[in-house]
Structure formats: structure tokens, C-alpha cells
Design a protein that fits this description.
Blueprint lengths: L1 H9 L1 H12 L11 H18 L3 E5 L6 E6 L7 E7 L19 E3 L2 E3 L7 H16 L6 E7 L7 H9 L8 E4 L11 E6 L1 E10 L5 E2 H4 L6 H10 L22 H7 L6 H8 L12 H6 L3 E9 L9 E2 L2 E10 L5 H15 L5 E10 L2 E2 L5 H14 L4 E5 L4 H10 L3 E3 L15 E3 H19 L1
Parallel strand pairs: 3-6, 3-7, 7-17, 8-16
Antiparallel strand pairs: 1-2, 2-6, 4-5, 5-18, 8-15, 9-13, 9-14, 10-12, 11-13
Length: about 450
């Protein structure tokens, strides 16, 4: 491993420069105007993986955005690691809150700032460069395959079919993923669980056109008012979701399990300060760690309707809409939750409006056993690099395709992420620490070493 580390140290600046080129590509999967950028980003990555040492790399079409597949097979009998990542990024809105151009990366206070710096271009780039370092020093102990998709931020709809069509091509012993976070640089952790996701869109329609709020106000239902009332009613005064049956399949942890979960280092004061909030809020009877890791939740992700431009326009809007996501915990099925949500929303809507409810995407929760060989290898690798044993941790986030991998390919995933809360993924001014990047590149070859053993 000394040769690998020397190679990494000697090429750090080039690694960053190349990452900047990747970050400059505005591969926003949610916006159709960036469709050409998705193809361009995929082609860029395929070329980069060949340059890094892959025997083959290709841009493979799907029903949506392409998948980048690459491989290096050193020995058909050796263990095989399938690296998963995604090259699509979230929209940058609200753009005015970015201090710099989101697609012109800069380094500020030891952090790379750009859209995708962490999620997930920075983290997938660690794997490409760790792979390059092992290839360049003839130190690669496993077969390696890469599968990089362009739809994770919009639900990975095309990747399910891609996996079904390419089971033989994707055969591996473990799927290695860096699209999660650690507790901190001083308290490293390995994610052993992800919440599932159900994502819905609702539309409330009243009159067949916008109406004068003076002539009709107080006599005709205002869809924006109704939607606000319906949305507010989805959470009760104790922070619990009010949809009947929502909690039916949630496994309640024992007191001992809850005590063990809450041993993770956490400062509520620092948490509130970092977010500039006066207090936290959530399901009564649970800690902040529990609320974001082992309890389900419901949130409005966007709400709109009526006039929002400059100045005034006194109207009752014809329509109002909202996007709503629900994070789920093990045993909850995203399809069932979607049906329960739709039935409840239609049931509580007044007759004065019409409602439409649409399921957008979702995925099952995921649990990675801490006794599997890949987890043990990652535990040793992180301990070597960070100087202390990592804690197992349940993330509040979701990567729906991870449970899909297990269902379709029959392969467990190892969630070896190097993000931090301060990276502000999905938010303006997303960033990724240079020390996180470097630690990741150093840790990954050690994982391969221990996994091969």
C-alpha cells in the first residue's frame, strides 16, 4: 500500500483539476434542457475510466439517461467489486443564493464548492482515482466494475430495467457505494441503513379559471387555502403523520436498541447553531438522531399556486399543487404508503375542490449487515486511515435503487460514504472538503486489500 499512497500523494493536484472538469458539466437530470449535458457527462466519465486503467468502458443506453459501465478483470477467480455512483446532480435553485457559479468550482477554506461536489461527483471521483492508483502501481487485488447512472436524483427509473437486462454483466461479490455521509472527521462512521422513500405530487383544483378575490372571495373555495389546510393536517400536534395505517409496519425498537442508537456523538446545541434554528421539531418522544434515522417522516418539498410575481394580483387561483415526500423505515413498503397517502388525501379533501394525486417515484428502505465480510473490510480500512474504529450508523437519507440491487441482482451494498452534514447537498453552495476527498481516496484501496483477503 505504500506505493499506492505515494502515487496518490504525487497526483493530488491533478485529481482535483480533473474533478473540476467533471463538476463543470451541468448534468441536471430533472431538467430536460440539460439532456445533452447528461450524454456529455457520461462520455467524459467513460473516457476518464479508460485513462484510469479500465480494460473497457462504454456508455450504455437506457430508457432514460445512459449508464457508464467499465471494468477491469484481473482474474476470473478473484473477488469482484461493483462500484455504483451517479453523475446526475440536483437543480441549483434558488440560484441567487449561490455565492459563486454552481458549475464553476472554486476552493474556499479547504472546501470545493460546486453543485455535485459531494453528491455524487466528488464521491464517485474518489473511486476512479483510487482505482487509477491501484492500477498504476500494479496493486489491484480484485476485479472491479463501475456502474455510474444519470437518474439517481429523479428516482433511477431506467436503472431497474438496465439491471434486469444485464445481470450477468453486473455479477459481483459486493456493490461499493459512496453516496452517504459520516458523523464527522473525528468520529467516522459507516452507513448500515437507509430510509426508503415515497414521493407524491398533489393538485387541488377549484374554479375553472382564476377569479377576482374581491368578487368571489368568501364564496368560492380557494385551492391554495384548501391545499394549505390539507397539507397542515398531514402532521398532528405531536409530530406524527396522520395517514391511517402509516405506522402499521414500523418496527418499534426496544429500549436497549434505542440506547445503543443514541450513543453516537451528537450535540443538539451545535446542530441548531449549524442550521440557524431556534429549536428542533419532530415526532414527540424521540431524539433528533432517532427522528432522522429510525423513524419515518413526511415533508412538503415544494408548494405553489396563484400569483407569485412582482407586485400584486388579487386572484383566487384555479389550481394549487405540492410535492410531498415520505421517508420510510425497514418493513414499510413505499408502494403501500403511496396508496395509503392517495386514499387519505382524497378522503379528507372537501367537495368544493377536485384533487389529483400522482406517485412520482420511490424505493424500499435498506439495511446492510455489519457482520458481512465487506463491512468488516471497510471497518478495518477506515480505522487505518482515520485512526479509530468507525461507528455503524443509520442514515436518514434514501437511495432507492440500493434495495433494488438486492432484489434484482441479489447483491448486498456497502455504503462507504465520506460526506459531512456541512457539505449542504441539494442546497445552494454545496461543497466537499479536500480532506474528505483525500481520505476517501486513501481509504478505498485499503478496503480492496482487506476485502480480497
Amino acid at each position: 500500500m505504500d506505493k499506492v499512497k505515494h502515487y496518490i500523494d504525487a497526483n493530488k493536484e491533478r485529481f482535483i483539476s480533473e474533478l473540476f472538469d467533471l463538476l463543470r458539466i451541468p448534468s441536471v437530470s430533472a431538467q430536460s434542457e440539460h439532456k445533452p449535458d447528461m450524454q456529455r457527462c457520461a462520455e467524459w466519465l467513460a473516457a476518464a475510466l479508460v485513462k484510469a486503467g479500465a480494460d473497457r468502458a462504454e456508455v450504455m443506453p437506457t430508457d432514460g439517461n445512459p449508464v457508464v459501465y467499465a471494468e477491469k478483470i484481473i482474474d476470473p477467480k478473484a473477488k469482484t467489486v461493483l462500484v455504483y455512483g451517479h453523475y446526475d446532480v440536483m437543480p441549483v435553485d434558488p440560484r441567487a443564493e449561490w455565492r459563486t457559479d454552481p458549475f464553476e468550482p472554486v476552493i474556499e477554506n479547504g472546501r470545493i464548492r460546486a453543485r455535485g461536489a459531494d453528491d455524487d461527483k466528488g464521491q464517485l471521483w474518489m473511486h476512479a482515482k483510487a482505482f487509477e492508483a491501484m492500477c498504476a502501481t500494479d496493486s489491484l487485488p480484485c476485479n472491479v466494475k463501475f456502474m455510474l447512472e444519470g437518474e439517481e436524483e429523479i428516482g433511477s427509473a431506467s436503472l431497474y430495467g438496465f439491471c434486469r437486462r444485464n445481470k450477468k454483466l453486473l455479477k459481483a461479490d459486493v456493490i461499493l457505494v459512496s453516496d452517504t455521509s459520516m458523523l464527522s472527521m473525528s468520529t467516522p462512521s459507516i452507513t448500515c441503513g437507509l430510509r426508503g422513500l415515497t414521493y407524491m405530487e398533489v393538485e387541488v383544483t377549484g374554479p375553472d379559471k382564476d377569479l377576482h378575490s374581491g368578487l368571489f372571495g368568501g364564496a368560492v373555495a380557494n385551492p391554495a387555502n384548501v391545499l394549505a389546510r390539507l397539507v397542515a393536517g398531514l402532521i398532528d400536534e405531536n409530530g406524527r403523520v396522520t395517514i391511517p395505517g402509516f405506522y402499521d409496519d414500523v418496527r418499534e425498537l426496544t429500549p436497549a436498541e434505542r440506547r445503543a442508537f443514541n450513543k453516537a456523538p451528537f450535540s443538539l446545541t451545535a446542530y441548531k447553531r449549524s442550521l440557524s434554528i431556534g429549536d428542533v421539531e419532530g415526532e414527540a418522544g424521540f431524539t433528533t438522531l432517532e427522528r432522522t434515522g429510525i423513524r419515518p417522516s413526511l415533508d412538503v418539498n415544494g408548494i405553489w399556486g396563484g400569483y407569485t410575481g412582482e407586485g400584486t394580483k388579487t386572484v383566487i387561483p384555479s389550481k394549487a399543487s405540492a410535492k410531498i415526500s415520505m421517508r420510510l423505515v425497514p418493513n414499510q413498503d413505499f408502494r403501500k404508503i403511496g396508496k395509503l397517502f392517495e386514499a387519505h388525501f382524497r378522503r379528507v379533501a372537501p367537495k368544493s375542490v377536485k384533487v389529483s394525486v400522482r406517485f412520482l417515484h420511490g424505493g424500499m428502505p435498506y439495511v446492510a449487515p455489519t457482520d458481512m465480510p465487506a463491512y468488516k473490510a471497510a471497518e478495518r480500512a477506515v480505522a487505518d486511515t482515520f485512526g479509530c474504529k468507525p461507528l455503524p450508523f443509520y442514515s436518514g437519507g434514501s437511495i432507492p435503487i440500493i434495495s433494488g440491487f438486492e432484489e434484482i441482482l441479489g447483491i448486498k451494498s456497502l455504503l462507504l460514504g465520506f460526506g459531512l452534514a456541512e457539505d449542504a447537498i441539494h442546497s445552494p453552495n454545496e461543497s466537499f472538503g479536500l480532506d474528505q476527498l483525500h481520505k476517501g481516496v486513501e481509504t478505498i484501496p485499503l478496503f480492496y486489500k482487506y476485502f480480497a483477503q
